[in-house]
């Protein structure tokens, strides 16, 4: 259609109009009841202060708009036989979705104590925002949800992630106009340039303009309508407007608009799937403009409420103390005429449920919103088939992520039929050496393609966009609807999604306590181009702190891996792609790295998570004088280089080398499922010998993980301490005192007696650091003895 106006025709018969209005009124009654009532759910007796919750928590303002959209989507699902899910963007929209899932029966089916009768309604009301109850936002406990509104900005990215490779699914996404002001949401509008109408489903954004945030007007509600239209058209959408406050008029307009939108979506998909259209389609978007707090109190204490910011949370805040507020609440609730909506037993009447879908067509019962129910294991190759052959430690070198790219290429090949695996990244797949995947699938792209472009493909399953927010949101939506994926990113810039991973970890942690939530594929990060090889880009690109951020989160969910070479990376990646309900962080280099372990040794070492490398230790079988520990590829290299120096200069010294690949092994077994018992820890690190630990990230984390151990006082950690610049790779290590020469100095300083006997060696190591600084400033590259160093037994 060329106009953005809502159709003027009457899409609903008189009976249908009554039915959709009854469903909407019932949902509004239930939403308001959840905020206010703990008893007398059907107002069978006059309302008293004792029926009202002592603490009024919840958000009414957005709820009637959400119930309106949900009711009309229900009607469209029935009318057009749609398979749809509902993504709730506005924060704290829980009352609306709990109301509708109770009406459709999906919530009572999954939560037996919330029965679909008066007793269950009382429980529904009482448990909302109540101690021991359910949150005020659309949390995992809400059937049909894949998106928690605890933080704004990610709904549309989640919606597109759910639609990728789901060709028959319609994802309706309501975007609050406050949420629309966030950066991630603004970037998410561009996701339509990546949605393939042949292999993907459809996303229907519904931009809900109710005018206000908590205390201020919203930007998009206050700009002229033609300017908003220009904005949405500029993003590549075709806007449809539904606006007003009269329920009957709005019902007809919304129904007619949804009929047109569904027809348009089906035409787009049919044309693309038949080959009749090959260009990028202009997908529809609905702009719904309705009053904030619609159908609630119009005025309270002499000031306007409905249609203002005052309706945002609890319109009547003093119901228990103020008789006028109590009377106004009763008038408000009775205005929905609950006696017409619920029978004597408290069940929804046939008029209410007439336009509610059945079975899995109910949005709260869609298996797409409980992705573990649809999840099928990936057909993964054997990592040994891609493993470099290692005859002796350190005699060969490979780029770990380049080898991993060949493994992922085979994963992409094997998953081509099911289309249940995708690789996500912010314009860095080739930079991160994973470009072998392009031999199996291209980069998804629906915009213009020029002759100079490489690997762009309408149906590609690699998604690259220069927004870490979008990559994360797409992957989360993809995983939560039952598929698998990997997010590769420069280590320093993954911090952009710190708050997003918070929410996903909380989602997974909460889901574990919900019996009907099925496990989903883990969210896998590959962080490369890491701190120790960002010497060329400089200080701004040097930050290993994402590990610290994640390590603070739920131990049931979080895993951190630091593979020291190519074969351990292959083993870890294979494990992570097979895992469920975790957030796995893998940190690995992309530059030439010595191969320390063959495939079998790597598998065994990764299974242990941490272990003694006897082949690298001196005087194996003897009690060590010192333990040199390492976690990460660069620290491992420096520790082994330090061992060769100690072997040369202090041949009688017994050195034990311990490598840690699973960082959470350092925690006690009482704090993390992967943690070591004290006996295991002491067997590796001893109870009383100095431990010099070279660690990939900030050293304080190792101390925090190991602070309860018997030998914590003997633990000395070297790592990144915010010393960075544009320099040589080895100078980065020197700047942060994690180089091989400093590690030898640390050994001399901490092994009893060595300061008296090894002063000459200590001086030689200090001199080497001085010589290094002079050399790089004169020659612009590292010392030959560093560049040409190779491990020898």
UniProtKB/TrEMBL annotation:
Key words, A-Z: Lyase, Thiamine pyrophosphate
Domain Xylulose 5-phosphate/Fructose 6-phosphate phosphoketolase N-terminal residues, every copy: 13-373
PANTHER family: PHOSPHOKETOLASE-RELATED (PTHR31273)
Name of the protein: Probable phosphoketolase
Annotated NCBIfam families: PRK05261.1-1 (NF003616), PRK05261.1-2 (NF003617), PRK05261.1-4 (NF003619), PRK05261.1-6 (NF003621)
Listed cofactors: thiamine diphosphate
HAMAP family (UniProt xref): Phosphoketolase
The species this protein was found in: Amycolatopsis tucumanensis
Alphabetical list of InterPro entries matching this protein: Phosphoketolase, THDP-binding, Transketo_C/PFOR_II, Xul5P/Fru6P_PKetolase, Xul5P/Fru6P_PKetolase_C, Xul5P/Fru6P_PKetolase_CS, Xul5P/Fru6P_PKetolase_N, Xul5P/Fru6P_PKetolase_ThDP_BS
Protein family membership: Belongs to the XFP family.
Enzyme class: lyase
EC number(s) reported in the record: 4.1.2.-
Domain Xylulose 5-phosphate/Fructose 6-phosphate phosphoketolase C-terminal: 590-791
